[in-house]
Amino acid sequence: MDELSHFIGGKRVKGGSGRFADVFNPATGEVQAKVPLASKSEVDAAVAAAASAQVAWGATNPQKRARVMMEFVRLINRDMDKLAEALSREHGKTIPDAKGDVQRGLEVVEFCIGAPHLLKGEYTDGAGPGIDMYSMRQPLGVVAGITPFNFPAMIPMWKMAPALSCGNAFILKPSERDPSVPLMLAELLKEAGLPDGVLQVVNGDKEAVDALLDNETVQAIGFVGSTPIAQYIYSRGCAAGKRVQCFGGAKNHMIIMPDADMDQAADALIGAGYGAAGERCMAISVAVPVGDATADALIEKLVPRIEKLKVAPYTAGNDVDYGPVVTAAAKANIEKLVQSGIDQGAKLVVDGRGFKLQGYENGFFVGPHLFDHVTTDMDIYRKEIFGPVLSQVRAKTYEEALSYAMDHEYGNGTAIFTRDGDTARDFASRINIGMVGINVPIPVPLAYHTFGGWKKSGFGDLNQHGPDSFRFYTRTKTVTARWPSGLKEGGEFHFKAMD
Predict the structure, then answer these.
(1) Would you say 498 and 127 are in contact if contact means Cβ atoms under 8 Å apart?
(2) Where does 281-397 have alpha helices with state H?
């Protein structure tokens, strides 16, 4: 069995706490590695070392930092297959899905190559007699990211690439469920020219998280995970005077209008609802057709598509639709929620209970489920399932459909499928959700826009990647300069208006 490590000072370092967590192969249910869980003292030592390394890195000009990102892009492309295989082995994703995970992180790194432009300040010449004013964007110092299991490549890159490009040192606390890819990314950054100590990867659990929250040197924390933990980190981090952005759970609705292309809508729901076994914060878990005729037609389209889904380990080939969920506990939670849907009166149209795969009976596989006649008081509607379960909630009118998405406590992503431009524009304008798709089921913005949900899906004022990430990881300093210009005046004891 492999024993994983931390990445401190530019090299892999064994854990010193004596505590470990099991890393499973989700397809077989077997423990394939153990990962060390850092103590508070180990976290504090990593932060202190990062603070020392940050001084020179922050003083490095933005173009040189951007060249490190440029080389990092090349190395990721070189090792794409290796990264994807390691990711699939620990998470359970298919290889194409794992490559997509890496690719969407890579795109943010590519965006960060433009750091010299993004870090430019503002300048006013002649703001007053002999006075110039200008602003500078400067790094915060040491910042940290706490990232989830479901995107072990993408979200670490979303956090660390902008932070490092801005001149910060970065402490990454990845998920202990699939920690290998973050460690591999750290090694690639070192190979790309990042100085030792500027990036530290510290594996751990709540003890490590609390150590980061309480460490006065850490100036900012970014988090992605469940809403209860997002609220905890946001409140505790803000109370400690840190800059904090936290992204939590989701319950994403897709509204299907009567004029929509039903084949297109059904195909979109299959990919968005069941891809990655539903373990995505942008997964569509609620379909809201408008009118019973639309709902019946959609069910008719969905059922044969769902029944053809290939559920298997990533080693079964690139035609696998989705693999296992990440842990036995995740599987048990999904099955519990499915049973609650049955008990509370929803109609189980496609029953994935009892799914078994020959040769992988101990794996964490969950069959696809489809519910109809779901109501808003049911647990399967209110709670984030994070599994291959799609619920259909029938709406009589467009306004009723809109209200379901608007009234839900989560506000991460949503979509509408329609051929009518007026309806689409009205939906995009009125909906109180952070990311909106029009005939696009998973509206994840490209790297040069920002990613972030509303309501209980997001906490903080700035989003992930895009221009917001450079605002989050820097602070603005404004300088007012006056040079001798023949003006001879004595001391002033009041603010003087600019002429």
Answers:
(1) yes
(2) 292-307, 328-343, 379-382
How many Å apart are CA 484 and CA 131, to the nearest integer?
Answer: 10
Reply yes or no on whether the pLDDT at 488 is more than 70.
no
The amino acid occupying position 284 is I
What distance in Å separates the CA atoms of residue 44 and residue 48, rounded to the nearest whole number? 6
Q: Is 388 helix (H, G, I), strand (E, B) or coil?
A: coil
246 included as an active-site residue: no
Q: How far apart are CA 201 and CA 123, in angstroms?
A: 38
- For residue 126, is it left (φ>0), alpha (ψ between -120 and 50) or beta? left
List CB contacts of 423: < 8 A, sequence separation 6 or more.
257, 398, 416
CA dihedral sign of residues 79, 72, 278, 203: positive
Residue 181 tokens, joined: 């890819």
pLDDT in tens, 341-395: 999 999 999 999 999 999 999 999 999 999 999 999 999 999 999 999 999 999 9
What Rg value do the Cα atoms of the chain yield, rounded? 25
pLDDT tens by residue, 391-439: 999 999 999 999 999 999 999 999 999 999 999 999 999 999 999 999 9
pTM of the model: 0.94
pLDDT band, residue 277 (cuts 50/70/90): very high
Q: Which of 112, 166, 246, 281 is catalytic?
A: 281
The CA–CA distances, whole Å, from 35 to 24, 84, 179, 198, 411 equal 11, 19, 8, 22, 34
Q: Name 475's bridge partners.
A: 138
CB 91 within 8 A of CB 150: yes
Taking the C-alpha atoms of residue 201 and residue 349, their distance in angstroms, rounded to an integer, is 45
> 484: pLDDT confidence band, cut at 50, 70 and 90?
confident
Q: What is the pLDDT of residues 158-203, one digit of tens each?
A: 999 999 999 999 999 999 999 999 999 999 999 999 999 999 999 9
State the pairing for strand pair 20-25/30-36. Answer: antiparallel
Q: How far is CA 446 from CA 103, 118, 149, 409, 450, in A?
A: 11, 17, 21, 25, 8
Q: Is residue 110 within 8 Å of 454, Cβ to Cβ?
A: no
What is the Cα–Cα distance from 386 to 313, expressed in whole angstroms?
A: 18
d(CA 478, CA 498): 17
Domains along the chain with CATH numbers: 2-248+457-479 (3.40.605.10), 252-438 (3.40.309.10)
Instruction: Supply the DSSP string of 256-267, one letter for each residue.
Output: E-TTS-HHHHHH
| Partner residues linked to 221 by β-bridges | 144, 244
- Cα 483 to Cα 7: distance, rounded to the nearest angstrom: 48
List, in sequence order, every beta strand (DSSP E) within 325-418: 347-350, 369-372, 389-392, 410-411, 413-417
pLDDT of amino acid 128? 87
